[in-house]
Amino acid sequence: MQPQPIEYTQPVQYTQPGQSPTPDQYAQPATQYVQTPLQDSVVGGDIVTNNINNMYPAVQPNQQIVYVTQEKGSNNALPWIGVVLILVSLFLPYISIEGFEVSGFEMMGEVGDIIGEMDGSGDGGSGDGGDDADVPMEFMFFGIAAMMVGFGPFIFILSAVISAITLLSGKSPKAMGVLHLSYGVIFLIVAFIGTIDAGILGSWSMYDLTGFGFYMGAFASALLLVK
Q1: Which of 101, 122, 161, 205 has the most crowded CB, counting CB atoms within 10 A?
Q2: Nearest Cα residue to 176 out of 191, 186, 192, 165
Q3: pTM for the structure as a whole
Q4: Rounded CA separation 216/163 (Å)
């Protein structure tokens, strides 16, 4: 068998005839790896830093990240519009009967006069309590609905003032809006139950006697619910 030629990856030093090359004569040198410094490249006119240390900022010990969430104040214009509508409703009719109208401010004066007269004649008020059982239920609810219309201007103006102060302080008048709107809804229920059947004259309820001003003042409070 003929010997196979030996392939060397580097020149082998000359040897004398009859002598074989030693292993150190054809050993490959150790591979050396040279780490070239990373350079900054320009991409699209912007300098891109290839240094890994610059890519990720070092986190300092005891460093805290604080997320600040700023709550948007109640600066919406709709609640203010509701306050204005409630105050404007006091100039409109709260009672409207066949062309006879009583505004909210006039209603406050009439109710104040009635309360004053009741206080002046309160010492002679002894009556029979047994007759109250004969009053039909619809008449009682009709009277309750009429009282709600009479005291409506006082409640509405108080609600408007409290809501305005709440808005000026940067808060939402939602709680006052819920109470105010509940007053209007309760009136609708009570007035419906207090419908009086007048026979050939038809039926009467506080719906027929209540003016536009009361409804406007009662349900403008829905705007107070807007944040």
Answers
A1: 205
A2: 165
A3: 0.61
A4: 16
